[in-house]
């Protein structure tokens, strides 16, 4: 992996970490909001039960409805906690392996290494993905006399090889 690829991967990793942190905090904020709502319902439940008790009208249905609402909020909290677990498990996709690499730790190895110097696993060669074929120039388009790249109209130099055009 080139230095530039390493830098890009590091930036992508930092972006993913920041995004994950933002989404986890959003889920945690929602959990806090739901927990506050539960506390209010429990306070209200206690107040209602006490008022009913004082009036001699304590009915089980009143308490059951409040408890059901609390249960529903706990279920919502569980959904948000599961979402946090999913977010925290996210990882950057690994770049495709090419060249001489360790199949265990994916470390790039020297060309002549038979075993990985880090983990001792037998090295393997992975064929690089074939380069895509360059597009074929259309018949009326101008092409570079040096490399055959199709040229934009009026180009003074080839964008691929830098050859001067038209002389």
The unreliable regions are none
Query: How helix-rich are the residues, as a percent range?
Result: 40-55%
Could you give the order of strands across the largest sheet? 1-2
- Principal-axis shape equals elongated
Mean pLDDT: 79
What is the number of domains? 3
Content-based structural category: mainly alpha
Rg to the nearest angstrom?
32 Å
Name the helix and strand elements from N-terminus to C-terminus, one letter apiece. Answer: HHEE
Written description of the protein model:
With 167 residues, the protein is mostly helical. The chain has 3 domains: 3-89; 96-127, no CATH class; 134-167. Helices cover 50% and strands 4% of the residues. It is built from 2 helices and 2 strands; from the N terminus they run ααββ. Strands 1-2 form a two-stranded antiparallel sheet. Helix 1 (3-55) runs antiparallel to helix 2. The chain is elongated, with a radius of gyration of 32 Å. The chain starts with a helix and ends in a 41-residue tail after the last strand. The model has no long low-confidence stretch (mean pLDDT 79).
